[in-house]
Specification:
Number of strands: 5
Order of helices and strands: EEHEEEHHHHH
CATH architecture of the largest domain: Roll
Strand order of the largest sheet: 2-1-5-3-4
CATH topology of the largest domain: Ubiquitin-like (UB roll)
Number of domains: 2
CATH class of the largest domain: Alpha Beta
Number of helices: 6
Oligomer: single chain
Structural class: alpha+beta
Helix content: 25-40%
Radius of gyration: 15 Å
Shape: globular
Distance between the termini: 52 Å
CATH superfamily of the largest domain: Beta-grasp domain
């Protein structure tokens, strides 16, 4: 397979990587960019642990080819933090929405996308939007509460 150079913006910084045509974005993010917040969970797009933003839209990095992000902006959970934690990351801590932490980066990225689209979502809207992100520990109540706390009331 012929590798090619792919340039894109990763967490606000223009980056260039040499990738194989079948290389997944999750592997590039974790193994080459050394950003381990994005988790490899199921590998089939069912759990949401690998959720990132591509041009501000949520995407599953385990199903996204790295070549497909050429010229785009990719934001991982680490990219949400500028000077300290993002308010949504703080809310997850404040509302005990973190237990094992494995799903948390994907949850936070998906929630960020929701709050960008809908400034004051209802609990039902939050639950519907977050349905693609699976948590085996918290029972979701604290996650919904954390997201709601960051909504514009």
């Amino acid at each position: 397979m012929t590798e090619r150079d792919v340039q894109f913006t990763l967490n606000g910084t223009r980056r260039s990587f040499r990738v194989a045509p079948n290389q997944l974005l999750i592997n590039l993010i974790r193994d080459e960019a050394h950003l381990t917040g994005t988790k490899y969970g199921c590998g089939i797009g069912e759990c949401g642990a690998c959720t990132v933003l591509i041009d501000d839209r949520p995407a599953l990095a385990c199903l996204t080819l790295a070549v497909s992000v050429a010229g785009k902006a990719v934001t991982t959970c680490e990219g949400l933090s500028k000077d300290g934690l993002d308010p949504l990351q703080e809310a997850f801590l404040d509302h005990s929405a973190v237990q094992c932490g494995f799903c948390t980066p994907g949850m936070v990225v998906a929630a960020k996308s929701l709050l960008t689209k809908e400034a004051n979502p209802s609990e039902a809207e939050i639950r519907e939007y977050m349905r693609g992100n699976i948590c085996r520990c918290t029972g979701y109540t604290s996650i919904v509460r954390a997201i709601k706390s960051c909504a514009d009331s």
